[in-house]
Model the fold of this input.
Amino acid sequence: SIPPFVSSANADFAVISVVGGSLKKHPHAEVVDRWQAAGASVIITGMNGMISVSTDGSDLVVTSFADQLKTGTGH
Done:
């Protein structure tokens, strides 16, 4: 996620996959800040659980396991 890539991606979301127990070192705060400064919402699996992304070809829906638990829609 070097600056030229982040700026050219023009992303609404940045999903960062983190293996359990590595949140202390990953993701680096600089990387999160870079994505957020570019306007992306950063979602980290180590904090939010599984991330689901779906589209109908027009709209994009991004949900996390943590969101499902909050709304009672988790399994």
